[in-house]
Amino acid sequence: MRAFDYQRARKPEDALSANAARYIAGGTNLLDLMKLEIERPERLVDLNALALDRIEDLPDGRLRIGALVRNATLAAHPLVVARYPVLSRALLAGASPQLRNRATTGGNLLQRTRCPYFYDPAQNCNKRDPGAGCSARGGLTRNLGILGISEACLATHPSDMAVAMRALDAVVETRLPGAPGETLGRSIPIAQFHLLPGSTPQIETILQPGELITAVVLPQPLDGAQRYRKVRDRASYAFALVSVAVTLKMKQQSVARVSLALGGVAPKPWRIEEAESRLVGQQLSDDALKTFCDALLSGAQGSATGNAADPHRLDNANDFKIPLARRMMIATLRDAAKEA
Amino acid sequence: MEMTAPVGRNAIDINAGGLIGKKLPRVEGPLKVSGRAPYAYEVHPDGVEGVLYGYPVPAPIGLGSIGSIDTDAATASPGVIAVLTHDNMPQGYASGPALAAALKENRLVNPILASHVIDHYGQPVACVVAETFEQAVAAAALVKVECSADASPHFDLRTEQYDAPKPAGGPPPDSRKGDFDRAFGSCALRIDESYSTPAQSQAMMEPPATLAIWHDANSRDAKAPRLTLHTSHQIVDWAQEAVAALFGLDREAVEILSPYVGGGFGAKLQVLPDAILAAACAKVTGRPVKIALPRPQIFNATSHRSATIQWVQLGADRHGVLKAVAHRCWSGNLPDRTFYEQAAAQTRHLYATPNLLIEQRNAALNLTLAASMRAPGEAVGLLALESAMDQLAELGQIDPIELRLRNEPKTDPETGKPFSERRLVECLKLGADKFGWSKRTAPGQRSEGAWMIGMGMACAIRTNLNRPSGAKVTLSGDGRLLVQTSMTDIGTGTYTILTQIAAEMLGLDPSMVTVALGDTDFPASSGSGGSWGAGSSGSAVYDACMNLRARLAHEARIPADRAVFARGRIGDGRRRSQPLRALVRRGALVATGSISFGSFSEQYYEAAYGAHFAEVGIDRDSGEIRLRRMLGVFDIGRVLNHATARSQLIGGMTLGVGAALSENLVADTRSGAFINHDFAEYLIPVQADIGEIDAIMLDAVDDKTNPLKSKGAGEIGVCGAGAAVANAIHNACGARVRDYPITLDKIMDHLG
Ligand SMILES: Cc1cc2nc3c(=O)[nH]c(=O)nc-3n(C[C@H](O)[C@H](O)[C@H](O)COP(=O)(O)OP(=O)(O)OC[C@H]3O[C@@H](n4cnc5c(N)ncnc54)[C@H](O)[C@@H]3O)c2cc1C
């Protein structure tokens, strides 16, 4: 671990004026990566003293979640439990109680991939070292992506929280340095927040250097049912192989409104609104669901071909995620429909 | 004493104070939970100052060689005192004549920084020593290693399997009885399947860590000239021997101290890079050096359990009575290593058969050292054998328990030797009753909501091992007893059971007994490994106490066989009694004791036994497999402490659940890296994976094993546990998965 400067910000302006600094919130991701020399910030600005730890019930029915609200607090908040159960469930399906007590809303959105090759500095990784190549391709890909990936990068975004937020159409509020002495704010729909890797997998979000997340705003609550279903290799304390966040409203056996985001399969929560609108007005028949799943999984690609982790063991590859994602989308929608 | 005959009724049987078997809470528990039991990285010995920190630099390739190492930037980095590479290791390192023998015995990892050769990925190739830990880590990242990879490394057991030779050492790999081929060919029921188990990591909680101190010959240091290692090791006498061999020292010039060990599971049977590098760095810098291996390096620079490929053939008549059994297996290790994963071990002893064929081969693989992990052999061998037995039961339409009963041997199937004691049938019957085995349905018949439910069972067997051990007991004038042995407590409860044995033997309250462990200056012991620790070291303490009792009786002028020890007093069994402390003159009364196991133990086949029962649920949508409940019933001879023994047993069962469902250390066959090298990616079970779990111990004694009449409890819990889970999965959904771990992708076609 390198020596670094450390500064505690008292107000957002302090943070924004700290040039070329990295923010630290819960530290549950950043510190691990610093210890492994994967992240090497020279300056850290600690956000924990900022007054960004409130959950506000806005007059228009929206809910604003401060960037420093801990995952545990958010999951247990009565308004979240009542109005956005999909988010509460997603948070509780993540990490462990100790981690959730520390992890923040902003940090969770910005946590980095769990690709094992990203975590081993002796392996090639275009995220760590742009242009170095990708050792994951042809290696152990069980927890890597099948959608939205590129030649340069197979990583997934590992967050559970973000998947639920995507299904809820959350908006990320930020501030960034403007003209001297000023700061600018912007609101970023979560759909635009995470970027696909293309040839620049080191650029993971739309945020500019030094841009500070201040809050995440959830739109007015939706009626109908919400579900979060996470599939993993052990019962707790494991990242999703596939996860599904659903909000669903049925009307006379047909879909009135639906949103569905997939986690564990792509560099960002995976959602295709167009497929959702085609499902509206239909019954959840086998055919309709198949068409819907086909649309979400269009272009999905496993990595078994050329797998060198152990060419005899497909469990080290991720092809199974394609049928698994399909099964889980269908099961979760059908389950939600019972109460929607 | 030496075991020469079955042990008659003794003080342990009489158990006058009721301490043997008692659930005495761990005597060192309060120290551990209050942070006052210093583990190796936490010791601060009096007078030791100026401790430096070392941080190893791992090889970035598999097999190959170092071209050059540029240490300039690291050396110039703040706080750095030295950077060790193969060019500046201390004189005499890795050149002594004793080293070859130590390597052959698998007492240490391949010597590191010994030459430009890289044996495997992650092998340390340099070590930075700095004033602080953080400075060492930062500088380690600045060491530039140029290396060239060998063009044809061997990283994949599958491709090396066919050329794998017979292991050149270790237990005899092959065994043949009767004519397997002929017998198998004419069997009415035949199972012929192959299995694979992945590499596994011992994954103990405490990282390997060492503080090394050289006591300079010229100093006034009382310990000079000597090397002291505060380290984390399961058998300190082995560590002493290996460190001495590696640094060309006399054994007596090496002191190993491991009073507290935070788990080992076999990984700490070897001297690991932390100890080697700390000793070397301390020598070169002339200051004490501390090193703990970071978690990613533990997976790649210590040892692992080899992957296995197994081929099991079972031939039986139509009643399921076995006529022919063959078990072949392949594992791997570094070239020239003799240790192999003897996955066919249990098949020699578990079921009666007139025709038996055992063949074990070990491929040369350029991966990290393969070595012992809890129940080497049986832990993975039973995953194959007991899955095959379940399949045989299904084929013959016989209840799996009934099948075992029909194949229960009267003598050891391989050698014909008598069993010392074997109560497997009782384990099976009691377990079936307690678990509700009769409620098991045909495969795929039971469900609850989204869950498909199934039950499975498997047998457990683990050969009982004993090793010579010694102990010393000292009774002081205040009536307190000190027990000293080089034995270790690796989290198993040794401090507690030795306290119980000594207190029981001398009629003392346990609070009057202090047990001191993990020091090579104490009488040499068995150490902790192979489940032999409690029986071997406990017997040495028993013997030392017997000798002390004789001394005390003599002093009290009571015939030794009439002396009664109770409440801190010695009496003649009638009216006369006096406090023990009254007999202590000149400060202390000392006695030593030992146990050795001669040819007597060879006359019997000794093992611990058990039966596992598991119930799993499988999510019909996702295929996620979750253990709902599990029960093990065990014959481990006399139970010395029901709480610590149970903890060992359910801990073992938990390891078995991990082997069945999730543990998979993946070797990337391009680089030879164990690539999922942290606890987020190498999945050991967590609390939520285990559900309801319990272990029942038969009320048993085995008078052929040792004076305590106990058998090992540390490993039997894992043996067969995973197979019970695998068989339950089959019962739930009909899938028979033979490539472990059984992950959801492998059963997806059976979910409907
Ligand atoms: C063993 C383990 C298991 C886990 N399992 C799961 C799981 O199953 N599911 C899951 O979703 N997550 C899981 N996590 C990840 C965990 O959720 C994240 O580590 C956590 O949410 C990160 O939040 P933090 O506040 O600690 O972020 P930090 O580590 O403090 O920061 C992370 C990143 O965000 C940046 N940052 C933080 N706050 C702001 C801000 N306000 N504005 C701009 N930038 C900011 C930091 O600069 C840094 O780059 C796991 C983590 C661990 C260690």
Automatic annotation (TrEMBL), chain A:
Keyword Oxidoreductase: yes
InterPro entries per the UniProt record, alphabetical: CO_DH_flav_C, CO_DH_flav_C_dom_sf, Diverse_Substr_Oxidored, FAD-bd_PCMH, FAD-bd_PCMH-like_sf, FAD-bd_PCMH_sub1, FAD-bd_PCMH_sub2, Mopterin_DH_FAD-bd
Spans traversing the lipid bilayer: none
MF terms in GO: FAD binding; xanthine dehydrogenase activity
Principal EC category: oxidoreductase
Pfam families: CO_deh_flav_C, FAD_binding_5
Keywords (A to Z) from UniProt: FAD, Flavoprotein, Oxidoreductase
Span of domain FAD-binding PCMH-type: 1-223
Documented EC number(s): 1.17.1.4
Highest rank taxon of the organism: Bacteria
Record PANTHER family: ALDEHYDE OXIDOREDUCTASE FAD-BINDING SUBUNIT PAOB (PTHR42659:SF5), XANTHINE DEHYDROGENASE SUBUNIT C-RELATED (PTHR42659)
Protein's name in the database: Xanthine dehydrogenase YagS FAD-binding subunit
Upper lineage: Bacteria, Pseudomonadati, Pseudomonadota, Alphaproteobacteria, Acetobacterales
UniProtKB/TrEMBL annotation, chain B:
GO molecular function: iron ion binding; oxidoreductase activity
InterPro entries: Ald_Oxase/Xan_DH_a/b, Ald_Oxase/Xan_DH_a/b_sf, Ald_Oxase/xanthine_DH-like, AldOxase/xan_DH_MoCoBD1, AldOxase/xan_DH_MoCoBD2, AldOxase/xan_DH_Mopterin-bd_sf
Chain segments carrying region Disordered: 158-179
One Pfam family named in its UniProt record: Ald_Xan_dh_C
Segments forming domain Aldehyde oxidase/xanthine dehydrogenase a/b hammerhead: 34-151
SMART domains for the chain: Ald_Xan_dh_C (SM01008)
PANTHER family assigned: ALDEHYDE OXIDOREDUCTASE MOLYBDENUM-BINDING SUBUNIT PAOC, XANTHINE DEHYDROGENASE
Name this polypeptide is given: Xanthine dehydrogenase family protein molybdopterin-binding subunit
Organism expressing this protein natively: Endobacter medicaginis
